[in-house]
Amino acid sequence: FITMPNYKFPGRFPINFRKFGNVTAFCISLTCLTYVLVYGKVLDWYDDESIRWATAVSILFAGIFLYMDVTRRSPYVLLDAFKLRTIRMGALLYLLLMVINSSAMFVNVFAGVGMHLDNLQNASLGNWCMVGYAIGAVIAMVLGGKGLHFKYLFAMGFFFLSLSAVFMYFEVQGAGLYERMKYPVIIRSTGMMFLYSLIPTYATQRMPYKYLSSWICTMITVRMVLAPCIGAALYTNVLQERQQHYVTRYAQNVDMLHPEASASFTQTVQGMQYQGKSKQEAINMAAISTKGRIQVQATLSAVKEMAGWTLYACLICMIFVLVVRYPKRKLLT
């Protein structure tokens, strides 16, 4: 439309709802679902009217898409593709990978809260992902070329993700080092690239060519839309809940009878009064300072706990990919 403005379409305009209605319904459904997952926590989930409307519209247009895909001669997605075990397994592995990959937020949270880094320094840590991607791609090609079974390659990918979680579990503390934060980023991106590159290779094994576009649509939908939204919503909501839990837990023991808290509070009050603040203003500033220290400690504890949960999730995924069967589909003539 933009690069070929002088092209004259023969007959009627080629894009209409009759031809692209199922694509439109599919995109509207995913857009509403993404809105629910992203803004659900901010808007207090289904207490907000827009979340309820978005959920209803998502379900409605998902039904419209399925109806149009089943009844039309040229469907957007061939539903028969999901009868293939490799496609179902590929979609599941992408879902597990991208949900667990949302643990990348641990580095950002720890760097921002624990080490008080600015946005530029925090964002620069993401550049180390390129190193991990390169390492993961090279190792995957070498081991894949040697004929190593897919289950061991998948398990190795989840193993690298678990190593990143272990590193964060032991690294999260009050005195973290910025230089060490590149290592969990490299390790996690290495494991991600392992799975990212090998899952489509496995899913398309002996797959009939007619299902290729359906697999690409499924892969992009799960990998780029559903799984990242689910992972982000899961990790951010759990982090907030555990953070509030630790704030309540730590605040119970912080009063004037606590030696360290009492000394810090009194010192802050005196310092504010020396600066010319009134007694009430000094007390308020000391209370805010105490609350901030509790908030930081609670956030670090929540990140450490969630890193442990991520480790268990990775171990479960490793066991799953090792014990599940990988039968080869018989070629149809």
Structure description:
The protein is mostly helical. Helix content is 72%, strand content 0%. It contains eleven helices and no strands. The protein has helices spanning 17-39, 49-71, 85-101, 105-114, 119-124, 129-145, 150-171, 182-203, 212-251, 259-274, 279-323. It is globular. The chain starts with 16 loop residues before the first helix and ends in a 10-residue tail after the last helix. The model has no long low-confidence stretch (mean pLDDT 77).
Q: Can you summarize this structure?
A:
With 333 residues, the protein is mostly helical. It has helices spanning 17-39, 49-71, 85-101, 105-114, 119-124, 129-145, 150-171, 182-203, 212-251, 259-274, 279-323. Helix 1 runs parallel beside helix 9, helix 3 (85-101) runs antiparallel to helix 8 and helix 3 (85-101) runs parallel beside helix 9.
Topology:
Layout: H1 17-39, H2 49-71, H3 85-101, H4 105-114, H5 119-124, H6 129-145, H7 150-171, H8 182-203, H9 212-251, H10 259-274, H11 279-323
Question: What labels would you give this structure?
Answer:
mainly alpha; 333 residues
- Give the SSE order as H and E letters: HHHHHHHHHHH
Q: What is the count of β-strands?
A: 0
The share of residues in extended strands comes to under 5%
Largest beta-sheet details: none
Radius of gyration: 26 Å
The assembly state of the depicted protein chains is single chain
By helix and strand content, what is the structural category? mainly alpha
Looking at the structure, what is the overall shape? globular
